[in-house]
């Protein structure tokens, strides 16, 4: 869409010498051949390269795929007017992964280079993350309501079905016929267990001060015992992470669900032969970090523990991404669709959240667990 010059662009156009390195917005100037004439300090940070290294280089050498940004530049150059796009996905070659940005491009005649344009890029990753987290929290509330309703509608008839099968078994003299009532009873019990799993534990979390690495090590050993041949489990821990106030069993279950989900993705990759012959095969990374000033929903936390499960499987199918944490949603023919829904619920009982990012060859599920006042020993 066409756009009016922003306040930043207007000031720069009026006085080219006032492109301030103190701005949080990234500013670049490229000529008609897309070669860089200038970038400010924020742009240096965004692209992971200094202005001296970047000057004169094609913009395409700084991005894994510059086609999306090139299209915005083409539109601004063709119309000789500013042009804006929101929530573009950029992946700087020297950066720290994919970024979601808002971008405005405007002709910049003051550069002394005909056809030059100025690019203003602001990071929209945080805004998108908050939007996604809000959607996840909404999913949790919707899932719990749906599960309670399903539990009531399913468990009552199952109790009657089981009782009738028991009464019928007492009336049958033929042992072979009682085998059928045994099947009915066992299947009714299995469905009740399934519903109870969806409902989660019926008690509040029994929290204690725990080194989260102890739990991850335990989960790692369990995953290694069931790992397909040739799969490597790497550990990348932050040893400075202080203890957390957690329910040991609930968090172990949540971690196991994520780890097993990752292992199943790796096994799928092995069956599809996505790993190069002679290269490194299936790989699971267990990673911990301490994050500061993190929002979980509407609440801001000064310190949060990040526990990641990263696999190099084929990735989450696009059509499942918006509903992945809903119960009974699964991409596998033999899956129940309970693992991620249960894990999200268990983590939410600790005021935390599970989020994910995925592309072919790299899927990362992150458990965010806030340190509360009781965890850190602070008085307020």
UniProtKB/TrEMBL annotation:
Residues 18-63 form the PAS domain. PROSITE patterns: HIS_KIN, PAS. It catalyses: ATP + protein L-histidine = ADP + protein N-phospho-L-histidine. Its EC number is 2.7.13.3. It is an enzyme of class 2 (transferase). InterPro entries: HATPase_C_sf, HATPase_dom, His_kinase_dom, HisK_dim/P_dom, HisK_dim/P_sf, PAS, PAS-like_dom_sf, PAS_4. It comes from the Bacteria. Keywords: ATP-binding, Kinase, Nitrogen fixation, Nucleotide-binding, Phosphoprotein, Transferase, Two-component regulatory system. Residues 149-373 form the Histidine kinase domain. The keyword Ribosomal protein does not apply. CDD domains: HisKA (cd00082), PAS (cd00130). NCBIfam families: PRK11073.1, sensory_box. PANTHER family: SENSOR HISTIDINE KINASE, SENSORY HISTIDINE KINASE_PHOSPHATASE NTRB. Member of the two-component regulatory system NtrB/NtrC, which controls expression of the nitrogen-regulated (ntr) genes in response to nitrogen limitation. Under conditions of nitrogen limitation, NtrB autophosphorylates and transfers the phosphoryl group to NtrC. In the presence of nitrogen, acts as a phosphatase that dephosphorylates and inactivates NtrC. This is Sensory histidine kinase/phosphatase NtrB. It comes from Steroidobacter gossypii.
């Amino acid at each position: 869409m066409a756009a009016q010059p922003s306040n930043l662009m207007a000031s720069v156009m009026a006085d080219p010498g006032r492109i301030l390195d103190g701005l949080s917005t990234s500013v670049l100037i490229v000529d008609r051949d897309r070669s860089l004439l200038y970038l400010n300090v924020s742009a240096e940070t965004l692209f992971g390269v200094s202005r001296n290294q970047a000057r004169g280089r094609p913009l395409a050498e700084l991005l894994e795929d510059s086609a999306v940004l090139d299209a915005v530049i083409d539109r601004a150059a063709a119309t000789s007017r500013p042009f804006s796009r929101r929530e573009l996905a950029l992946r700087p070659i020297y950066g720290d992964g994919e970024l979601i940005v808002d971008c405005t491009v405007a002709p910049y005649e003051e550069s002394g280079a005909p056809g030059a344009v100025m690019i203003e890029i602001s990071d929209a990753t945080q805004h998108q993350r908050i939007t996604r987290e809000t959607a996840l929290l909404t999913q949790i509330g919707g899932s719990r309501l749906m599960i309670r309703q399903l539990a009531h509608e399913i468990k009552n008839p199952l109790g009657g079905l089981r009782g009738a099968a028991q009464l019928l078994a007492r009336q049958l003299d033929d042992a072979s016929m009682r085998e059928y009532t045994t099947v009915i009873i066992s299947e009714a019990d299995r469905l009740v267990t399934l519903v109870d799993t969806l409902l989660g534990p019926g008690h509040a979390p029994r929290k204690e001060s725990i080194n989260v690495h102890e739990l991850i090590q335990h989960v790692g050993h369990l995953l290694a015992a069931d790992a397909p041949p040739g799969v490597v489990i790497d550990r990348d821990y932050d040893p400075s992470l202080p203890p957390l106030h957690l329910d040991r069993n609930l968090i172990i279950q949540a971690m196991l669900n994520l780890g097993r989900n990752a292992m199943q993705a790796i096994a799928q990759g092995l069956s599809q032969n996505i790993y190069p012959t002679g290269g490194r095969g299936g790989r699971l990374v267990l990673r911990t970090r301490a994050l500061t000033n993190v929002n979980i929903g509407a609440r801001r936390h000064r310190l949060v523990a990040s526990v990641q499960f990263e696999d190099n499987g084929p990735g989450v199918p696009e059509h499942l991404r918006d509903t992945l944490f809903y119960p009974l949603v699964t991409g596998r023919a033999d899956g129940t669709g309970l693992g991620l829904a249960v894990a999200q619920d268990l983590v939410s009982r600790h005021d935390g959240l599970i989020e994910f990012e995925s592309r072919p060859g790299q899927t990362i599920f992150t458990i965010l667990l806030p340190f509360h006042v009781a965890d850190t020993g602070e008085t307020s």
